[in-house]
Amino acid sequence: MTFILLAYRSFIKRIIEEKNVQHEAEVLHQKNLVLENIKAQESERKRIAVMIHDDIGNRLNILSLWLNNLDTKGDELIKKNITTQMSSLIDSARSISHSLYPVNLETVGLVLYIEELIANLSGRINISLSVSPKFQKKDIFIEVQLYRIIQEFTTNVLKHSEASRVWIYIKDNQTNLAVVISDNGESFEYEEVKKGMGIKNIESRIKSMNAVHKWKNVLNKGSRLIIKIPYNNEFPD
Q: What is the pTM of this model?
């Protein structure tokens, strides 16, 4: 009986171990699918953004220069209207390009790119950025995902939260990069909105970095997103 009992326990243990291995393999497979999906999206976004930035944007700038040298025979009103429309088109092309993919992020760096985002939103909401003095440039994949998360968070705040302030903290720790984004708006019940595209996009990007996160929301007092990204990850080019 003892032998049978031990054999049975060994059999059950082996089944549990095999199921755990299968579960871990499935989790890894899902992570890889998310990562590949985001890589494909970013690649296509980058292609379109570069096309808009380098082709359409440059063509509009050239047209603007030609217009400034054009003899309109004293009809300054026509010239002024065309110049205004041209300037608006240039701004729109730049805005569309940035929203699709942060084209210059690799050369400018994450911090300056966030500061540009803050400057663009300064007329709509008060955003403060605090960065650790020890912060060092990260892998471009990480920086693009973080910029996207901050962009998505602020967009959601502007659309839904009635907040007047947003705070962004970025800190290099010994084993991870910590990012905290919070606002003073109405907040939300996570279980009710977790299926929304905004939350899905944020959490998919967090998962693609193999990071951990936590939402801390208090209704009518604000939302807080805490992200910790381990340094020992390997990321795609």
A: 0.65
